[in-house]
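Lecture 7, part B: from sequences to assemblies.

Below are the input chains for today's worked example.
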Amino acid sequence: MDLLQGTLDMLVLRTLVAEPLHGYGIAKAIRASSNDSLEIEFGSLYPALKRLELKGWIASKWDTSELNRRAKYYRLTPEGKRQLIEEHSKWADFVNAVGRVMGPMPGEGEA
Amino acid sequence: MNWLRRLRYLSPAYRRAEEQEMQEEMEALEAIAGRRELGNRTLAAENARAVWGWEWLASLWRDVRHSLRVLARERSFALVAVLSLGLGIGANAAIFSLIDTLLWRQLPVQDPDRLVRFNGGSASYFTFDQFRAKSGEVLSGVVATSSEERDLDAGGGRSGVGSRWSRATTLTSSACARHSDAHLRRMTIAAVVR
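Predicted structure of the full complex, as structure tokens:
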């Protein structure tokens, strides 16, 4: 499934609410919580992480992974949390608006 | 501060450190996920570097160096280009400064908006004298000039009164009476409004 422009940043912020994750962990988490519908390419995820870090919405530090491997873990900053809340309400408005326009498929279920 | 963080990437040392950090991070991730799972690492790094935001500056610098090399190799082309640019810019500057002086700038005098010129072509010394004598409440000073270069005997010696603005006081009535010929009837009169 293709992502809408700008949606990836929002997904990353949302995924980091629960716990800090490394780059691959974020991709796995998004895939899992979308029931394998969203396959995030590392090639677009990694620049997105750097972009969010530059904006100060996430911060990173080296840590040890579950299998005792070193990795850089990203966590949400307070600023990032504010941004997520804002984007979440914008997203909800967007989904509602598109839903109202599309409605149920015409010619189906009606006599 | 977004722009402050971005500014740090201007330093080559900082960029090298970040590059090193990025490669380490990707190697660590490859160790966890496997090389195939991560896909094109070079492309990911390339796009991450674009996020730093100074790609345009780097490519501008590359362009400048390239063009300097080309100009150094093609001497005659460079000469013609520099000459035509120089002539073009010079001509533009000349035309602009002319237009600027004539149309846009005010006269280089105190209170240029109080300075007026009398329309209606030429006037005689008599007219000028009448203006000077009777317009005391409206005008604070009246001057006249003649477009013809001519010596004027103002009583004592001869003084060259050319096509300059001559102060009203230098053109005395007696001097004018002696020179009531043609050029004194073709004067342009200007005044300063009170």
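Note for the exam: The interface with chain A takes residues 1-2, 5-6, 25-26, 28-29, 31-33, 37-41, 43-45, 47-48, 50-53 of chain B (CB under 8 Å). Keep this in mind when comparing with the next example.
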